[in-house]
Amino acid sequence: MAESSGVTPISTVQRLSVYLRTIKRAKESGKKFISSEEIAAINGYTPAQVRKDFSCFGSFGIKGKGYNIDKLIKALEEILGLSERWRVALVGLGRLGKALAKYKGFHLSKFDIVAIFDIDPEKIGTKYNNIPIYSPKKLAQIAKRKKIEIAVVAVPANSAEEAVMNVVKAGIRGIISFSEVRINLPEGFILRNVNLTAEMETVSFYLTHPDWMCRGWF
Amino acid sequence: MAESSGVTPISTVQRLSVYLRTIKRAKESGKKFISSEEIAAINGYTPAQVRKDFSCFGSFGIKGKGYNIDKLIKALEEILGLSERWRVALVGLGRLGKALAKYKGFHLSKFDIVAIFDIDPEKIGTKYNNIPIYSPKKLAQIAKRKKIEIAVVAVPANSAEEAVMNVVKAGIRGIISFSEVRINLPEGFILRNVNLTAEMETVSFYLTHPDWMCRGWF
DNA sequence: AGTTGTGAATCTGTTCACAGCC
DNA sequence: GGCTGTGAACAGATTCACAACT
Question: pTM to 2 decimals?
Answer without folding.
Answer: 0.94
